[in-house]
Amino acid sequence: MTDSNKWNYLTALAIIALVVVSVFAITRPTMMASGTGNTAQKIITVNGVGTVETAPDEAILVMAVTNQAATADQAAKDNADTASRVVDAILGLSLSKGITKDDITTVDYSLTPVYSQPDKCVTTTELPQAPGDTKPQVTCTITTPQLVGYAVRNAIQVTVKDMNSIGKVLDAATGAGANEISGITFTFTSGTYANLQKQALQNAIQDASGQAQTMAAALGVHITGIVSVNPAYVYRPYINYKADTSGAASTPIQTGTLQVTVNVQVVYEISA
């Protein structure tokens, strides 16, 4: 064997040995030192529910001014005049918790053309009756819809914090020209909701603790600690109310009560 071939042969053997060592290192299982062994943690999981119920302290009213005129400019002008009177009437009310401009926002505005409805048959022409026919034959002409004007709708949202004044606000708005009341949404202000949520959360944790104690006693074990607490569900309440202001001297509104509900999942560690 020549020196060159011998060198190539030795090089090939070295590469093969390196590959074998690498494969062995990859496939060889890793062993970790362990102590006396891990004891499985014993737990019980409960879901607690907390609820707080009270009257709402905020109402959201949605109302609109709708009108129609022959031209778009006239329809928009008439609507703007009426909507301004509605806003002024609401702002002019004397309430224990007054309404400011920040409490009134526009939520929808539209200007759309209005067309006449086509007649199914506006002219008829009686044709000679064919032999054997019992009814005369007629022809009908269908009319094309015609532009008859423009309709404007301006909807505003009013936030009211004086629950006793909701009827007054509705009456003032309709008296000034609002001709559409979409409804009322009762809810809580941000500060009130935050406080109620805290109370509901405390009630939920107490409910979970009571359940856990009952379960532990029934199982003959002791609760040694809390592993985790996770709020599972928080519901911000509201209720919609359709107000009927037609023919009412003063619109009566009953707010009722709302509930704030919080669910929590608590995992307890137990021992015999």
Descriptive notes:
- By secondary structure, the chain is α+β, with helices and mostly antiparallel strands.
- It folds into two domains: 103 residues, Translation Initiation Factor IF3, CATH 3.30.110; 129 residues, Protein of unknown function (DUF541), domain 2 (Alpha-Beta Plaits).
- The protein is built from four helices and ten strands.
- A five-stranded antiparallel beta sheet has the order 3-6-2-7-9, with helices on one face. A three-stranded antiparallel beta sheet has the order 1-10-8. A two-stranded antiparallel sheet has the order 4-5.
- The longest helix is centred in the last third of the chain and has 30 residues.
- The radius of gyration is 39 Å and the shape is elongated.
- The N terminus is likely disordered.
- Shape type: elongated
> How far is the first residue's CA from the last residue's CA?
79 Å
Number of helices: 4
Query: What is the percent of helical residues?
Result: 25-40%
Tell me the CATH architecture of the largest domain: 2-Layer Sandwich
Question: How many domains, as an integer?
Answer: 2
Uncertain stretches: 2-37
Concise account of the structure shown:
With 272 residues, the chain is an alpha+beta fold. It is 32% helix and 35% strand.
What is the strand and helix layout of this fold?
Blueprint: H1 3-27, E1 43-54, E2 58-69, H2 72-91, E3 104-115, E4 124-126, E5 138-140, E6 147-160, H3 166-176, E7 180-187, H4 190-219, E8 222-235, E9 239-241, E10 258-271
Antiparallel strand pairs: 1-10, 2-6, 2-7, 3-6, 4-5, 7-9, 8-10
Main attributes of the structure:
disordered N terminus; five-stranded antiparallel beta sheet; alpha+beta; three-stranded antiparallel beta sheet; Alpha-Beta Plaits; 2 domains; Translation Initiation Factor IF3
